[in-house]
């Protein structure tokens, strides 16, 4: 395998894997913030316990996801220096804003939220989780704006073979980034909804003593699934008006784009690979299954007894947890593979964006990063499963520290 293919596969593994963490993080942060709002307003003990339990799972997923994001950025600089050299002045702008404006603020306020239980005013503590949630949205927005520019470059000019930013507003309002942001936002809610419903179904299936806790959690998860499943496809479908014409093999627009690229860049096949169409098919199929599950949930939701006692329904929700992940990965393949052979559509080819480094070095980094991501994913799944299975009584987030035994006092005798 040559250096170009190794670099492409490595980016696919790192970016795709990191995105799985991001989706659950976005969705769970929102649901935890909503639950804490309810707990703060009503002083509800069960909702406060729900915040601690689901918040602990959120923190686990966030912490491991941070590592995957750092690794992804490292390999981006290692393998794709050609892209940095030609388009870094534009592509790097939203990524820099994501790091400085969003990520650092999000991480700082999350730390304050984690260690502020019982130490901060309850309203201030509530404000912290909402700041975390909103900055998570902002972080996702900047990243998707950067990716949207790769799909549909706007707001730039080429000067001596280098892209120069001319209109930041055009870059930030690029429809391929903005629509993708809302698509991912509702996709994250869908992921968190299925996750919450699946974990709750597991405990209800086992006839847990925490029936009320997981009945409420199940309802929140199902309501989230029902509310998010249609907006996901709306914002996904709206993006098709901006999709590259080369993704439509055989269409008039596709043939015209092929002829234009041949005239400008020389002979070659500029049509999207077949994997893009396969990704689109799997994405639509996964979403269709989620709609069916949402319809079943819509029928079950008014009947609390069925939520608690329905073992077949519990099994369905447990099995359905991977569905949003399957659809997201397939959609990502459709979006990214369908852009090929371009790194920046119509501006920079992928083969010209790869670093001029020894293939052996890319092979080493590919093996190392792939192995690291496999370990991180396995650790994340194990930790989530372990703490989810233990239930709310084992949640340590926000729990009062155990009392420190006092030193025995020696009474002198005379």
UniProtKB/TrEMBL annotation:
Predominant subcellular localization, coarse grouping: membrane
Ranges annotated as spanning the membrane: 20-41, 53-71, 91-115, 127-150, 180-205, 217-237, 281-301, 313-334, 361-385
Keywords: Cell membrane, Electron transport, Heme, Iron, Membrane, Metal-binding, Transmembrane, Transmembrane helix, Transport
GO biological process: aerobic electron transport chain
Database matches in InterPro entries: Cyt-d_ubiquinol_oxidase_su_1 (IPR002585)
Cell location: Cell membrane
The keyword Transport is assigned to this record: yes
Membrane-protein topology: Multi-pass membrane protein
Cellular component, GO, one term: plasma membrane
Keyword set includes Electron transport: yes
Spans annotated as Disordered: 395-414
Gene Ontology molecular function: electron transfer activity; heme binding; metal ion binding; oxidoreductase activity, acting on diphenols and related substances as donors, oxygen as acceptor
Family of the protein in this entry: Belongs to the cytochrome ubiquinol oxidase subunit 1 family.
Name of this protein: Cytochrome ubiquinol oxidase subunit I
Organism of origin: Actinomadura barringtoniae
Upper classification of the organism: Bacteria, Bacillati, Actinomycetota, Actinomycetes, Streptosporangiales
